[in-house]
Design a protein that fits this description.
With 333 residues, this protein is α+β, with helices and mostly antiparallel strands. Helices cover 22% and strands 25% of the residues. It folds into three domains: 66 residues, Uridine Diphospho-n-acetylenolpyruvylglucosamine Reductase, domain 2; 151 residues, Uridine Diphospho-n-acetylenolpyruvylglucosamine Reductase, domain 3 (2-Layer Sandwich), CATH 3.30.465; 94 residues, UDP-N-acetylenolpyruvoylglucosamine reductase, C-terminal domain (Uridine Diphospho-n-acetylenolpyruvylglucosamine Reductase, domain 1), CATH 3.90.78.10.
Length: 333
């Protein structure tokens, strides 16, 4: 176990951020020593994947732990595949497609590592990773014990799980390989792509479905390598329809999905589009031109500036619609 001091925290927002201690773990046998170090230091801990869903501060007075577990192992006895937490998510999706395993294709090109996927229950185009997970293996660095959590143990919901606020280091996830037998092409943007490109539905293979998702994502979302961002910055809020303030805009101006008998889910991107002219201007952070849910940096923005802009958006949305927006990425304090 190698401990580094004043090390950079890699992040897709390109915030110049450092931490007091940085530790890479690549063997489960190292967790015992890690527990001792964490217990001795009594500092806050951040478990880091690829840094694609965090908003770090300039200096984190704590311990950053980066698990490095890269195995991919097929388990024929229970139709699962065991995947190390540091495997790149899209690389894993391509591996599944190569092996004709359905269910992962709609999650193509989501940035980040496999280990980060269950924490906020990543999802896109009608699919969520919670539908694919059998088990999550992790280490509790506060109580010095290993845990093997079932799908139900994780309490998955929209962009959320019970893993998020726990002192867990995920090092392996078992995914179901026989849960889906066909493509899911029902999402509106997928249907529009198929129609606009005159694609015959019956001709769409598993690989072609993934390519369609990649094309759609590339058309609306910036590459974080080229344009610093963390993808969607806000969650789509769920609210009682009767509580929405319609004094400035009609309900027809919004994008609304019925959630249950009392509540609806509202498209946050549309809300931001409608109030865009009322927002403050910031020097180093702005709304991405192709997708209002994405905040982009010019590489010079600090956490403070990014959060100031995000809070300005939240305040204007709340004042205009009586709707509260929640930030999707993890803010490191």
């Amino acid at each position: 176990m190698n401990i580094l001091s004043n090390h950079n925290i890699s992040n897709s927002l390109k915030i110049n951020s450092k931490c007091k201690f940085f530790i890479e773990i690549n063997e489960v046998t190292q967790f015992e020593n890690l527990y001792k170090f964490v217990n001795e230091q009594k500092l806050p801990v951040l478990v880091l994947g690829e840094g694609t869903n965090i908003v770090p501060k300039d200096y984190f007075e704590g311990i950053v732990i980066k698990p490095i577990f890269n195995k991919v192992q097929y388990n024929t006895n229970d139709s699962t595949v065991s995947v190390g937490s540091s495997v790149n998510w899209h690389s894993f999706v391509k591996e599944m497609i190569k092996n004709k395993i359905y269910g992962f294709e709609n999650l193509s090109l989501i940035p980040g590592s496999v280990g980060a996927s269950p924490i906020q229950n990543i999802g896109a185009y009608g699919q969520e990773v919670s539908n694919l997970i059998a088990r999550v293996d992790c280490f509790d660095y506060v109580n010095n014990k290993f845990l093997s959590l079932s799908n139900s143990d994780c309490n998955f919901s929209y962009r959320k799980s019970s893993l998020k606020d726990k002192p867990y280091i995920i090092f392996n996830i078992d995914f179901i390989t026989n849960g889906f037998k066909s493509l899911n092409l029902e999402y509106e943007s997928i249907q529009n792509y198929i129609k606009d490109n005159n694609i015959n539905l019956s001709s769409i293979s598993l690989n072609r479905a993934s390519e369609i998702i990649v094309d759609i994502r590339n058309s609306i979302l910036p590459d974080p390598i080229q344009v610093p961002n963390v993808g969607s910055f806000f969650k789509n809020p769920t609210i009682n329809k009767n509580e929405i303030n319609t004094s400035k805009f009609n309900l027809e101006d919004l994008i609304i999905w019925h959630h249950d008998s009392d509540t609806v889910k509202v498209g946050a991107a549309r809300l931001i589009q409608l109030v865009k002219n009322d927002l403050e201007n910031f020097n180093n952070v702005s709304i991405y031109s192709n997708h209002a849910l994405v905040l982009v940096s010019n590489g010079k923005a600090t956490q403070r500036e990014i959060l100031s802009f995000a809070n300005n958006i939240k305040d204007v949305i709340n004042e205009t619609f009586n709707i509260s927006l929640d930030i999707e990425p993890t803010v490191i304090n």
